[in-house]
Amino acid sequence: MPEIEETAVSELEVTSPDRSCRVVRIDNSPFLIGRGQEIGNHLLLDDGRISRQCAAIISEDSGFILEDRGHRRGIFINGKKIDRAPLQNGDAITFGLEQSYEIVFRSRSDSESPVQNMMTLIGTVPTTVHGTSPGLGKLTLLLEATSLLHSDLPLESVLGSMLDHAIFITHADRGLLMEHDASGFLRVRLARGSHGVSLSGEVNPSQTALRQAMQKKKSVITEDLSVADEALQAAQSIVTQSLRAIIAIPLYAVARTNSTNAANAKGSPSPSEPGHFLGVLYLDSRKPTAFSRLDRQILDALAGQAASILDSARLVEQERQRMKLEQELNIARDIQQALIPHGFRDYSYFEVTGIHTPCHAVGGDYFDVFPLTDDRAVIVVADVSGKGIGAALLTTMLQGAFSGMTPGTDPVQVLAQLNRFLCDHYDVGRYATMFFSLLDRNGRLYYINAGHTSPLLMRAGQVSDLVTEGSLPVGLVPEATFAAKTVDLMPGDTLALYSDGITEAIDPDQNPFGDERLSQVLAGKQHMPLAELQKDILQSVETFCRGASQSDDITVMLVRYRPEPSPANP
């Protein structure tokens, strides 16, 4: 098995389910990842849900490639499932599992090692006449802090130790690591005093210094506040705490090149812009101090290390949240699919078929057919405003309301109660169009149309709208009233019920499929088997759209009235 040449240093930052961290160097190609040692894995992952032959990292001339070797749940890079894909510095690798291993790929040239970077940064360390270096002690501390990145310590321990090093180097009284949270505010993640003491209770950093560092996007380092600018001198927190020295270093993720301005007028690359703002490294003291050039550069290096750790933690957390949301959506989808009819029972006096295709993981369309008595069946199709989990929840509520109906229930009253409930709970922010009907064995169709698209009636080769007028949607207006109408179906009559995802489906030029085109698809096909007719409708819509992305759910239900023949006269 070939070893990787020492022209690059490539590592994996591995976060275990217990949140402990370690760094593993990629020193073989292929570098095998999986559960179990007996098959030669280089990175062992102790999680029974992970396949024994899980993944491999392969070194090629173009760089490193991650390859799925048969993991059941799939391999993901930055949340995207892959079979084989290149790895870039900072990529997050996950396994489609909750509370499992999370890995960040790191790659740099040997010249980018911590020691070499630091020596390049500080230049030649000055020496005394006796040949000793006053800066070597501080440089040693920095290298110790850098080595923490390669330890198995938990994240908080690594950050705490790096903050302790910063306090020691600057002789500060206290240090804070402040993180930029999702609400846009800075929160204190860690607070330490001298000698590694953790600070509890309220801390009061200088908001003026923090604001200046964020606005200028660069460090604010004031060695003696008595000669600082007036804004800092007058800051209340500085005055009340008698502060004399302050350091505020903004932390950013790895800089990204501005791809929209990749080259200037001379053709050279544009400068990198700061990446995502992560937080601030803050230190202060009640005594004035003096920082040498080496001290400031060591602080910058420590801040860079802290930013790297926070950035990795942010990516891991984003992936964890994405996986959690995906899991919840999968559960919601499974529940919704289980509630939607998949094949209908046989009815002696009509045939029925239907299909629902959500445009997202879960949809807002609902349809159902179920017997109310031996001689009467409920047929309903509805379309809830909006998409996603909110719409899916409302469709489930509608299904519960209708499935609880008894033979003596008045459908008009059911819709009126639903309307009042939704309007009273206006913060739900949803309404539903609906076609509700009862089909009797004798062909009498009793129906209420609440703002829904009219079903199409196929009769004697002709296609026409069943409904010419209707009520408002359910849940839109508190004062809405609902009226029922009836129509007598003839043997062979077919009803096409659908949601507006059919007629509003668009082609690449944004033209809608439309009602007229649907009527043309149905014309002359009143004797076609319902399954074939449904397939014809869906195929016509798909052909029309020519691959254009759709933004609405598609639902079709076909009902054909076919009464039992009358018994022969004796």
Secondary structure blueprint with pairings:
Blueprint: E1 8-15, E2 21-25, E3 31-34, E4 43-44, E5 55-60, E6 63-68, E7 75-77, E8 80-82, E9 84-86, E10 92-94, E11 102-109, H1 114-122, H2 136-147, H3 155-170, E12 174-180, E13 186-193, H4 207-216, E14 220-222, H5 230-234, H6 236-241, E15 245-252, E16 256-257, E17 272-273, E18 277-285, H7 293-339, E19 350-357, E20 365-373, E21 376-384, H8 388-403, H9 411-424, E22 432-440, E23 444-450, E24 456-459, E25 462-465, E26 485-488, E27 494-498, H10 500-503, H11 515-522, H12 530-545, E28 554-561
Parallel strand pairs: 3-4
Antiparallel strand pairs: 1-2, 1-11, 3-5, 5-6, 6-9, 7-8, 7-10, 10-11, 12-13, 12-18, 14-15, 15-18, 16-17, 19-28, 20-21, 21-22, 22-23, 23-26, 24-25, 24-27, 27-28
Helix pairs in contact: 2-3, 2-7, 3-7, 7-8
Number of helices: 12
C-alpha Rg, in Å? Answer: 34 Å
CATH architecture of the largest domain: 4-Layer Sandwich
CATH-assigned fold name of the largest domain = Phosphatase 2c, domain 1
Total count of strands: 28
Sheet bearing the most strands, described? 6 strands, antiparallel
**How far apart are the termini?**
91 Å
Unreliable stretches covering 5 or more consecutive residues: 110-134, 256-272
Class inferred from helices and paired strands: alpha+beta
Strand-residue fraction? Answer: 25-35%
Shape: elongated
Query: Largest sheet, order of strands side by side?
Result: 2-1-11-10-7-8
Helix content: 25-40%
Level-1 CATH class name of the largest domain: Alpha Beta
- CATH superfamily membership of the largest domain, which one? PPM-type phosphatase domain
Number of domains: 3
